[in-house]
Design goal:
The protein is α/β, with parallel strands linked by helices. The chain has helices spanning 17-30, 50-61, 78-90, 113-146, 172-186, 191-200, 213-220, 246-258, 318-332, 335-339, 343-379, 385-422, 426-436, 440-446, and strands spanning 2-9, 33-41, 66-69, 94-97, 102-103, 160-162, 168-170, 228-231, 234-237, 278-280, 287-290, 299-302, 316-317, 447-454, 467-474, 479-485, 491-493. The chain contains 14 helices and 17 strands. Strand 8 and strand 9 (234-237) form a beta hairpin. The longest helix is centred in the last third of the chain and has 38 residues, at 385-422. It is flat, with a radius of gyration of 33 Å. The relative contact order is 0.07.
């Protein structure tokens, strides 16, 4: 009976001698003649293994009747095993596994249903064992962190070095800088002033570059400097690594909380108006959103301010600009508004979102598979501790980001479908907008851009008030211009255009 053999190991450090010997002994006992042996060195978690593919093609074209493997896991993981067995059964090939004693066809060449059930169970066990091994690795990494080991990460926190024992040790030269930064902060200096002072005094980071606000902030906010190491949300006590006294660290944290988001590190923008649609009327650059921790005077500002090329254009309060645009658009409603809604374009955007959503879900599955793959590679010594730590962090970051993308896309899809549904009925659309306001998705559809310019005359009686000219261009190419003020609640037409709205913003 023509027989093929498949043997596999995961790394070059392993060999197939034992598998070949066991299979050879079995063939001698059963009287099987080995037609060809296929040897592969590759992890079973990897799809499209070339030798496995070659073997399946060979079996289908050379009247092979038996495929011998030492154990079921040599074929791969759960789903792959099931597919391979189905293909072998369709070709009348009996799969025999020595370790489990499985034979997928009976003596008459018919499917062995008991063996099929056993195969499914064992394939599931293999998957469970992989997850168990992953847990053991994670447990080992945690124990390593408890012991003060570096765990192979490429970048150590500033102030520490890797010892010959592969543990964290305080770097006396860098620890001086840590203490200096904490001292400056408690003296009343903000992150920007500390950054400027360090650079002015000629200090450089470990990479030999200038200090930034973000780097200073991360140092002030890192628990390791009080002797507590963070590992997957858990704080591990390592008093031998303490650089900053606990009272000093806690004092810094209280001050940081009182100035939370002042430098914009933790800002999560959820803006109704897309920033890229706001154009500076002086230099032509876009505006960016600047938000304060106390929620007051959040403003759009010309991005030229960030690069030392301040063109001098005015900033505009985020809420005031958003509310004024809502009111102006509502005054045009419904004729002009509906002109800006292209239902065919909405349908196209819905399809695009669905494609993006499917892509994101596919990426999520790929990342989950990659997570299992690196665990398998670590178990088979194909990844060092350092390589595993780096790859695992990249995958975990990717999982979080992809899940966030999926949630965002799902929310946008709901808005678009609602817009598409409402646009079929003018009265429903009008009622919905007046009840809930102009949605972000609707604003995105009908607004092409918003140009901000300073206005030469003061139109309010408030001292030193600033008047801002807003030119609103719709996707229908209609353009409307109106004036708002910085310190008072005035919204009125630009005298150069027809009257749109008179009165105060309520």
């Amino acid at each position: 009976m023509k027989t093929a053999v498949y043997v596999r190991v995961s790394t070059d450090k392993q060999d197939v001698t034992r598998q070949n010997e066991d299979i050879s002994n079995y063939c001698n006992y059963k009287g099987y003649k080995i037609d060809r042996t296929f040897e592969e060195t590759m992890s079973g978690t990897i799809k499209n293994r070339p030798v496995l593919k070659e073997m399946m093609e060979y079996i289908s074209t050379n009247q092979i009747k038996v495929l011998l493997i030492s154990e079921l896991s040599r074929l791969g993981r759960t789903n792959e095993i099931t597919n391979i067995i189905e293909e072998l059964t369709e070709n009348g090939v009996n799969l025999i596994t020595l370790k489990e004693g499985i034979s997928t066809l009976d003596e008459d060449g018919k499917p062995n249903h008991i063996a099929g059930l056993l195969t499914d169970i064992l394939a599931g066990i293999n998957k469970f064992e992989l997850k168990t091994m992953k847990y053991r690795i994670e447990s080992g990494l945690r124990a390593s962190a408890l012991n003060g080991n570096v765990n192979g990460g490429p970048f150590l926190p500033y102030g520490y070095k890797r010892g010959d024992d592969k543990k964290y040790h305080i770097d006396e030269n860098e620890s001086y800088m840590i203490k200096y930064i904490y001292k400056l902060y408690l003296e009343g200096n903000g992150t920007q002033k500390i950054k400027n002072r360090l650079n002015a005094e000629g200090y450089q980071t470990r990479k030999g570059v200038k200090w930034s606000e973000q780097t200073v902030y991360r140092i002030l906010n890192n628990n390791i400097y009080r002797g507590k190491r963070e590992y997957k949300g858990e704080l591990i006590d390592l008093p031998e690594l303490q650089i900053i006294p606990t009272d000093t660290f806690n004092g810094v944290q209280r001050r940081l909380r009182s100035h939370y988001n002042k430098i914009g590190i933790n800002v999560k923008h959820n803006l109704k108006i897309e920033r890229r649609k706001i154009i500076c009327g002086i230099c032509g650059k876009t505006y960016y959103a600047h938000k304060r921790s106390n929620g007051k005077d959040n403003a759009y500002k010309c991005i030229s301010r960030r690069y030392g090329e301040n063109c001098g254009n005015v900033a505009v309060n985020i809420d005031k600009l958003t509310n004024s645009i809502d009111k102006v658009i509502l005054n045009w409603f419904p004729e002009e508004l509906l002109r800006g809604i292209d239902t065919s374009e909405i349908d196209s955007d819905i399809n695009t979102l669905l494609d993006e959503l499917n892509t994101a879900r596919g990426e999520l599955k790929m990342l989950q598979k990659e997570e299992l793959t690196i665990v398998d590679m670590k178990l088979n010594d194909r990844l060092s501790d350092r390589q595993f730590d780096v790859k695992n962090k990249q995958i975990q970051d990717g999982l979080v980001g992809t899940q966030d993308d999926i949630e965002r896309l799902e929310e946008e899809l709901v808005d678009l479908k609602k817009l598409r549904s409402n646009s079929n009925n003018l009265q429903v659309l009008a009622r919905d907008i007046r009840r809930n306001g102009i949605s972000k998705e609707l604003l995105k559809k009908i607004v092409k851009n918003i140009t901000i310019k300073p206005y030469p005359k003061q139109i309010s009686t408030v001292k030193n008030d600033v008047t801002i000219l807003v030119e609103l261009t719709l996707t229908t190419l209609s353009k409307y211009s109106f004036l708002i003020t910085r310190y008072s609640d005035i919204l009125k037409e630009d005298p150069a255009y027809l009257s749109i709205y008179r009165g105060s913003i309520k």
